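dude i think i finally got it to work??
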Amino acid sequence: MPRLSAGGSLAYSPVIPVVAAPEQRASTTAFELIQGSLSSGRIARRSPLLGGLHRLMDGTLLGLIAAVAVLAGLTLHWQHRWTVAFRLLEATRTQAHRLTESTAVLEQHLLLRSQQPNRLVPTQVANLVHLDRPDLGALQASASSPMASLQVLGNQPIRAGY
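look at this
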């Protein structure tokens, strides 16, 4: 540092060049920059109305994100339900097709084996009769009859296939 003259005047002091340098500040991280720019507390101190609007927009944004997440979850759930129902529909169509083919094969077999093929009537949906499954509770109540064991054998489920 230069010495000042006894009179206190700088006019007689030797000139030392002084350069203005930028102030050295600690480097801020990206998070600190975002936190400072999005801080509602700093804005609320300057303008309470703007701070309230900032909080309202934050809440609206969080609500919108939650609504999108709920709708995405519901969409995935409905898509799964539709897929399961479609697989069941395809299985039903396949079974119906197999039943039609089996009926046709049986009819052809019976027509070839019968001695009077003109007396057989082709199978139609209108000619089919649906029988309800018998109630097993009523059959067990009449188990005291001698034919009960034969009735139980007659009501056993029929296995699929030929």
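The first helix runs from residue 30 to 37.
im so relieved honestly
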